[in-house]
Design a protein that fits this description.
This protein has 12 helices and 21 strands. The chain is α/β, with parallel strands linked by helices and 421 residues long. The structure holds ligand LLP.
């Protein structure tokens, strides 16, 4: 459920007509709904209200400071993967004790940044990382709280580029080696073991892979406790999918997911952490774009938009589907055209969708890509020297630009021509 609905024939974000935002800010532009972000965050809070827990929003899915502040003020923790994301979470007012640091390639400088500013836990992904973290923390007179990310070798049944829990993926340590690696961790002077971490993939639409992984997590908790480790936190990762198609049977709800966690590890007395990204931010945002041209091709018509693959890379990168809808609701019985929806970038891959039925559209008309709040703006680039797409946050009947569109001067101003040229 989201708060992007037609009112009097025009698509709105909450109580704001999208036409108003397009007039004020121009297109393309990402538009987020505060009510939708809030609602989805709260669903996860409720799903875990049977135990001590922290819902850590995966900052990589949407890292705008205003979005982080909104969620942080609701009590969210943050799952971060870089010094940049750490800085963002802190700048949004989230205290270090609510930030978990994931990622396979943490740098020494990033470890120092987090240890200096305060951190809840590092999710360690390898032995070399463990050794380095111990050295860094010890040199600062600290012990770094850690969970070790364990790779449970389960098939998440999702797109291969975003599955992370199979043994051939680069993530975590093999579960068979956990006993040994935890023993090493316990002997390191700069390390304090606090828990176990897993994350098996993204856009999971079936709960079974979670069940399999979490059963292994429960067994491992018991085994490591028997070894004498104080396992008091379990980080279950993120990954619960969202419906990208309105007509599709919907993926399981956060409440059902919470029950899977409870069934698997509820009797262990651990504090539970989860790291949802897409499920909180995905349906909380749309990408608003204008039609530039209608072009007749050989046996097909093209709808050429002012948004391109550099603004929303998911269709080009994963073959992902986003519903594309007109901002002016199609009148009943209106004539429908069939289009390949494309952007202006000079690659055939700059195709958002093929054979989409849309009502009579003309240049200047607006369309919206639904479910674009996660992995949308954060993956945007300036390819083809197109300025980074701006972002707007709506709450009720008002909106604010939360990231402005850079001017051409700003974009060019970042480059330097050396004086010897
Ligand atoms: N925790 C860890 C350690 C992760 O690697 C991820 C996502 C998450 C949590 C959040 O997963 P979520 O709840 O959002 O599924 N760019 C891709 C998705 C990449 C996901 C990477 N890791 C896409 O556009 O589909």
């Amino acid at each position: 459920m989201d708060h992007f609905n037609y009112v009097d024939g025009w698509l709105h974000a909450e109580d704001v007509p999208l036409t108003r935002i397009a007039e004020a800010v121009g297109t393309p532009v990402y538009v987020y709904s505060a009510a939708t972000l809030t609602r989805h965050f709260k669903l996860f809070q409720q799903a875990l209200d049977w135990t001590d827990h922290l819902v850590c929003f995966a900052v990589k899915s949407n890292s705008n400071l205003a979005v982080l502040k909104l969620l942080g003020d609701l009590g969210a923790g943050m799952d971060i993967v870089s010094g940049g994301e750490y800085a963002r979470a802190r700048a949004a007012g989230v205290p270090g004790e609510r930030i978990v640091f994931s990622g396979v390639g943490k740098l020494e400088s990033e470890m120092r940044l987090a240890l200096t500013g305060g951190i809840r836990q590092f999710n360690v992904e390898s032995e070399p990382e463990l050794e380095l973290l111990s050295r860094v923390a010890h040199s600062m007179g600290l012990r770094a709280p850690i969970a070790i990310r364990v790779n449970p070798d389960v098939d998440a049944k999702t797109h291969e580029k975003i599955a992370t829990g199979k043994s051939e993926n680069k993530f975590g340590i093999p579960i068979a080696r956990a006993h040994e690696v935890y023993a090493r961790a316990a002997r390191l002077p700069g390390i304090e073991v606090v828990g176990i971490d897993m994350h098996i993939g993204s856009q999971l639409t079936d709960l079974d892979p979670f069940r399999q992984a979490y059963a292994k997590m429960a067994d491992l908790t018991r085994a490591l406790r028997a070894d004498g480790h104080d396992i008091r936190r379990l980080d279950m990762g993120g990954g619960l999918g969202i419906p990208y198609r309105r007509d599709n049977s919907a993926p399981p709800l956060p409440l059902e997911y919470g029950q899977v966690i409870r069934d698997a590890v509820g009797d262990l007395g651990c504090e539970i952490e989860i790291e949802p990204g897409r499920n909180i931010s995905g349906n909380g945002g749309i990408l608003l774009s204008s039609v530039v041209y209608l072009k007749e091709g050989e046996g097909r018509d093209f709808l050429i938009l002012d948004a391109a693959m550099n603004d929303l890379i998911r269709p080009a990168m994963y073959g992902a589907h986003h519903d594309i809808v007109p901002v002016r609701e199609a009148a009943l019985g209106a004539e429908v055209g069939r289009f390949d929806v494309v952007g202006p970038v000079c690659e055939t891959g700059d195709t958002f969708a093929k054979g989409v039925d849309l009502p009579g559209l003309a240049p200047g008309d607006l369309v919206a890509f639904r479910s674009a709040g996660a992995y949308g703006a954060v993956m945007a680039s300036e390819y083809n020297s197109r300025p980074l797409v701006p972002e707007v946050l709506v709450q009720g009947d008002h909106f604010a630009v939360i990231r402005a569109r850079p001017t051409l001067e700003e974009m060019l101003g970042r480059d330097t021509i050396p004086e010897w040229l």
